[in-house]
Amino acid sequence: QVQLVESGGGLVQPGGSLRLSCAAPTNIFSVYTMGWYRQASGKQRELVATITTGGITNYADSVKGRFTISRDNAKNTVYLQMNSLKPEDTAVYYCNAYFVNIGIRTNYWGQGTQVTVSS
Prior knowledge:
Order of helices and strands: EEEHEEEEEEEE
Number of helices: 1
Shape: globular
């Protein structure tokens, strides 16, 4: 059983910042693309950002310019720095690790961490 361990969620006022962290096993982190997804109440889970082992990033349009994904290979940890937070960023945020081999995608998920943006 692969464990992705998340931390860093919480309550923040609009315009504030939070940083999420996700630690992965070495054998996963060194090979898999890491990312963050989120799911707001009553909505489908959506992509927030991903980062490849080579450091190539991809962001949802809704977070571009406000969120930054990064990875620390020495700590097997991926981060999501969230700035200028808005109420619509409120959701459960999930860490994801995925790998595609001969067209088959393997996914691992963290347990989720709640982010609430409210005054």
